[in-house]
Amino acid sequence: MYRYDEFDRRFLDERVAQYRGQVARRLSGQLTEDEFRPLRLMNGLYLQLHAYMLRVSIPYGTLSSDQLRMLAHVARTYDKGYGHFTTRQNIQYNWIKLEESPEILADLATVEMHGIQTSGNSFRNITTDPFAGVTEDEIEDPRPWCEIIRQWSALHPEFSFLPRKFKIAVSAAAKHDRAAVKMHDLGLYLRRNEAGEVGFQVLIGGGLGRTPYLGLALREFLPKRDLLAYLEAALRVYNQYGRRDNIFKARIKILVHALGIEKLREEVEAEFDASSKDGLELPEAAVDAITKQFTPPSYADAAGDDAILQRILAADPLFARWVKNNTHAHKVPGHAIVSISLKPPGRPPGDCSASQMEAIAALADELSFGEIRVTHEQNLVLPHVRKAALHELWLRLAEAGLGSANIGLASDIIACPGLDYCGLATARSIPIAQVLGERLAAREEAIGKLAIKISGCINACGHHHVGHIGILGLDKNGEEFYQITIGGSDDEHAAIGAVAGPAVAAKDVPRAVDRLIDAYLHLRRGDERFPETYRRVGMNPFKEALYAAG
Amino acid sequence: MLLDKTGNAAADEWRHLADDEAAPEGEAVSVSLKRWERDHNALKGRDAKLGLHLPNTANPVALNGEVHRFALIALEFPNFKDGRAYSQARLLRSRLRYKGELRATGNVLRDQLLFMRRAGFDSFEVDGGRALAEDWAKAFGEFDVFYQSSSDNRPWVMRQRFPAA
User: Fold this and answer.
1) Which of A453, A472, B45, B56 is the most exposed place for a label (fewest CB within 10 A)?
2) What's the pTM?
3) Helix A530-537 and helix A509-523: axis angle, to 10°?
4) Does A277 touch chain B (CB under 8 A)?
5) pLDDT in tens, A357-408
6) In this complex, which of B118, B133, B162 lies closest to A157 when CB atoms are compared?
């Protein structure tokens, strides 16, 4: 993992002191709320329906056990004893007091954490594959590049007041996209060119919200050394030409589609050619030093672990189910990547209590080299677990209420906080997720992989556009209604779902989802997943099932 | 009130001319881009310093070749959240190598001063009462660690870590 040096630490201390001063000026009335708002937002503090919400940055979703223990401390000391992991690999606390926020940030700074740029019209948290560095399906570890971009984008002197927020995701996996790269303002895939050099494919203009688009290729191959200069060129074009007259048309995706990708590419390439690369070059020594911080841990020789695991699997079918759904191939023999589900059916998706965080931190210390990852599906990952330790891990997770074996299944639902917390929401998300999770858990093994995603308003924080089944909460004359989209996908086969028809009342959502699933089970061929069946048969059979009388 | 690049009060020698106001001799005056485009021949012949107010929708690269005629270029922040002038400033300093005074005007607030300074601004038109009450000069010293190379030529972290690079 990346550890701060003296510069990083000093920067963060200066930031905490600056924010403390800003809050004092707000409380004394020197700053108006309108002036203070962007300042607190740039430190992650939102005002929601009932209280302030603090979003803490988890750079590229990587946590140390000490950091997770600090997140537990914040939950217990300053909030109601829990936190909520988000679709951008961050965590947010929903019951924060403004006066205490400088103290929280000071506490977080002691473990190299902060809320910088988790909101506001600038760069947001850089996200990546939660399996980075441990999956075989990877050209190289993307995290050093995430860290390089993180540093370059921190309080950028030119791009801190962009037309709108700007999200960057990086993935190096050759086959599987676990970082939803195509849904980002700017996406980077590490790729090898014909000459065998590793560089980036650059995508631009992806995003969900009220106008969902998948990112388009801006540059097929960008040499590594040009990364920052190229990002600077792209951002300069956006900063100058992105719309500022209408907040709903200010994301770069709107500029991409207004100009057309060819014209935008011309502008970016011209800016890149003309601009000075001074100070943007990446000295090899700098890249090497950052890369070195991500050196893999010293794994034990676990060659015998597979045989041990096989014996336990044969004896314990419940454990076998968890292993099948919640563990993934690791590049080192005898090891596994373990997903910890934060979706026990009936509970708010992504929530985690302080004591659960502490339990996970302890397990990470004992069994995963003290490292934890956060996924954009709002689950956690222990990236380096010996297979012989899986059974003990499973038992101890279950003791902490974290034993759900539902990763990737119907009850592994993504949901935004919705009208229970959020000032923008038009309907509740969490209760819908709770009801669906409980209802579907019993038959989810038979259903297989299924991604249900729920947003409480058209801003789409619950990623409903890319759910196999997407559910969007709307307000119809004071009543909660839910529009259903189907056929979306957020992986390497990314697609925006299509609206199935008229929205349904809250009480009818479970039956509607049941009918869609029944139709899928009836229509699917072999091990086809929901979006594949949808692509083959089209909307009509699903629509008929959904709106059939009775 | 005018602040200099250290955040201290400075005397303002400049007067901005309305587009229909005659240009006096011997006085430092600034004009709008529109006025410059209309009257540039007459303005070039004056024997006094000339400044330019550039709207934040103008691409400064279009001034190439003429940019060094201006002893002052004023950029505007119609609202502090509108950050287009940061890119204009960077283009002027880094691309066009503009060496004159670069002034921030409009909704210039304490918590944006350091960003502006880093992007290449070196004077700031501000609300004097607030600047005194909130001790704006301190805003320039809130950080001494920076992750980017920029137009204020301060050391940046990557270079500090690897001086030889």
Assistant:
1) B45
2) 0.96
3) 70
4) no
5) 999 999 999 999 999 999 999 999 999 999 999 999 999 999 999 999 999 9
6) B118
What pLDDT shows up at residue B164?
66
Distance in Å, alpha carbon of B56 to nearest chain A alpha carbon: 8
**CATH architecture for residues A305-399:** Alpha-Beta Complex (3.90)
Which residue type occupies B33? L
Q: Between B81, B94, B151, which is nearest A38 by CB?
A: B81
Report strand pairing: B29-32 vs B15-16.
parallel
Is the minimum CB–CB distance between B62 and chain A shorter than 8 Å? no
State the pairing for strand pair A198-204/A186-192: antiparallel
Which structure tokens are listed for A357? 């965080």
Set of chain A residues whose Cβ sits within 8 Å of the Cβ of B112: 161
Residue type, A199: G
Distance CA A81, CA A74 (A): 8
The CATH code that applies to domain B2-161 is: 3.20.20
pLDDT in tens, A220-230: 999 999 999 99
- Number of residue pairs across A and B with CB atoms under 8 Å? 119
Is the pLDDT assigned to residue A549 strictly greater than 80?
Answer: no
**ipTM exceeding 0.90, yes/no:** yes
Fold for A135-292, please state it.
Sulfite Reductase Hemoprotein; domain 1 (3.30.413)
Tell me chain A's radius of gyration from C-alpha atoms.
23
**A171-194 per-position pLDDT tens digit:** 999 899 999 999 999 999 999 999
